[in-house]
Specification:
With about 250 residues, the protein is of the alpha/beta class. The chain is about 35% helix and about 20% strand. The strands form 3 sheets. It has a 6-stranded mixed sheet, with helices on one face. A hairpin with a 3-residue loop joins strand 1 and strand 2. Helix 4 packs across helix 9 and helix 5 packs antiparallel against helix 6. The N and C termini lie far apart (about 45 Å).
Length: about 250
């Protein structure tokens, strides 16, 4: 069965994702119960599993409500087990499983938090990256180091370019405004900014997006590019050093 993926806007700018496949219906992150329940009801679905990416409240707050309503199981990162709602399964990189297009690989992607994970569905060419790799950006380093996040981003950047990236927030327009300060002459970026602006004016989400488009436009994935290095005054520096500077500039943007 091909995956059916629903994007569910929650809170002011969060996204949760409902995924129906061979193993039933799962949910990536649980920011707010109401919109998720409404989406399930509209499809006539129940909920089998909640899959948490990290411990921040705006990704887990609805977990217990959903567990009470549906009797669903809950899985999340082993490294953050003590900070999460009670888990039925604790997972980390290598804890892979599932059937058909629902086969899932767990990727450890620390940086935003120390135990952040992403869910990769390789057969369906989908990555649920929450607050690690984001559309035209990456998550703030609340717990990890620039080196951690850079390594995590490189891991995700190595996936097939046709992979669809489902990130955790509608931050894309703000990220775009920053990205053009780094690469104002990037024509692919300029075209993407126009597309993003039109989507937001129409009230449409800007995710998912292909990894190929991120590789062509996301400054955090382009720290090896001479134009990006020059923009931050670090020509010839390592991509890790450039990433740290780009992240610091975004933090104060």
């Amino acid at each position: 069965m091909p995956l059916e993926i629903l994007t569910v806007p929650c809170l002011s700018d969060n996204y949760a994702y409902l995924i129906r496949g061979d193993d039933g219906v799962c949910l990536v992150d649980a920011p707010e119960a109401g919109p998720i329940v409404d989406a399930l009801n509209a499809k006539g679905w129940s909920l089998d599993v909640v899959m948490l990416t990290h411990h921040h409240w705006d990704h887990v707050d609805a977990t217990e409500d959903l567990r009470r309503r549906y009797g669903c199981k809950v899985t999340g990162p082993k490294a953050e087990k003590d900070k999460l709602p009670p888990l039925d399964w604790s997972v980390s990189e290598g804890s892979n499983g599932g059937n058909g297009d629902a086969y899932t690989e767990i990727l450890d992607v620390p940086g935003h938090t120390l135990g952040h994970i992403a869910f990769h569905f390789p057969r369906a060419k989908a990555l649920f990256s929450a607050d690690s790799l984001m559309a035209l950006g990456c998550g703030r380093l609340f717990e990890g180091t620039p080196e951690m996040m850079h390594k995590s981003l490189q891991k995700m950047a190595a996936l097939p370019p046709e992979t669809m990236i489902y990130s955790g927030h509608e931050y894309t327009l703000g990220n775009a405004r920053f990205a053009v300060t780094i690469e104002p002459d990037n024509q692919a970026l300029q075209a993407r900014v126009a597309k993003i602006t039109a989507a937001r004016e129409a009230g449409q989400p800007t995710v998912p997006v292909t990894l190929a488009e991120e590789l062509a436009t996301n400054p955090f994935l382009r720290c090896h590019i001479p134009a990006v290095q020059a923009a931050v005054g670090l020509e010839g520096a390592s991509s890790e050093q450039v990433f740290a500077e780009v992240r610091a500039r975004k933090d104060s943007f």
